[in-house]
Amino acid sequence: MTTTAHTDTTPGLRMSGVELAFRDGDEKLYALAGIDLQVARGEVLAVVGPSGAGKSSLLAVAGGLATLTAGTVEVGGRDITGLGRRELTRFRRDHVGFVFQSGNLVPALTARDQLRLVGTLGGDRSRLRNPDQLLEAVGLTHRARRRPATMSGGERQRVGIARALMSSPDLLLVDEPTAALDRKNSHDVVRLLAEETHEHGVATVLVTHDHEILEHCDRVLEMVDGRLAAHV
């Protein structure tokens, strides 16, 4: 797949010498061990690997949700490693989007209001995209007034993607987006992610067990025992 060129050459994500370790008795175990990674703006990187390999830890560290043992993480050229809790929370709100397995939608809100909610949380309003235009981009204009319970799994996931893109993030972190979807919806959702990534210059990291959807990704790496390697 060809990635659209973007004028800003600063990587959307850069991880340098990243380690995430914890103690198990007298033993030191590594969830991430010496990760060096760059993800360009407008690139979809898929990360595959067995359960427990460190994929979720990779997303957590990239999104500033876990404290590193060593190394640095930069998002959109900003080193987030040493940010305080409040500053990091603000930075995530404006610059990082998350897409979860289940969509993680608010049950009482319509599709349009799920997106509008992002604008009520404060932050840089100049970065906000138009919710109706985003719903149109994900093919859900006709579902704008629907609540999650009345939408299909694929539709809920599309709303989750649109909501994650509302703040024009530099980095989009996607955790198993096709886990609850059938084959057609899986391809549709990842194809949509790729289109939005390429068009808007987002750096997207997608963790997945679904090898069928890798054709929509620009690059694939495999994680084993906390280390990244080229996918064979």
N-C termini distance: 17 Å
CATH superfamily: P-loop containing nucleotide triphosphate hydrolases
Q: How many DSSP H or I helices?
A: 6
Q: Give the proportion of residues in helices.
A: 25-40%
Number of strands: 10
Shape: globular
Give the helix/strand class.
alpha/beta
Q: What would you report as the Rg, rounded to the nearest angstrom?
A: 17 Å
Query: What string, H for helix and E for strand, traces the elements in order?
Result: EEEHEEHEHHHEHEEE
CATH topology, which one?
Answer: Rossmann fold
- What percent of residues are in strands? 25-35%
**CATH class wording:** Alpha Beta
- Overall mean pLDDT stands at 91
Regions with pLDDT < 50 over 5+ consecutive residues? none
Strand order of the largest sheet: 6-7-8-3-9-10
* Structural domains: how many: 1
Give a quick summary of the entry:
With 232 residues, this protein is an alpha/beta fold. The protein contains six helices and ten strands.
Could you walk me through the main structural features you see in this protein, from its secondary elements to its overall organization?
The protein is of the alpha/beta class and 232 residues long. The chain has six helices and ten strands, in the order βββαββαβαααβαβββ. It has a single domain (13-230), classed as P-loop containing nucleotide triphosphate hydrolases (Rossmann fold). Strands 6-7-8-3-9-10 form a six-stranded mixed sheet. It has a four-stranded antiparallel sheet with strand order 2-1-4-5. The mean pLDDT is 91.
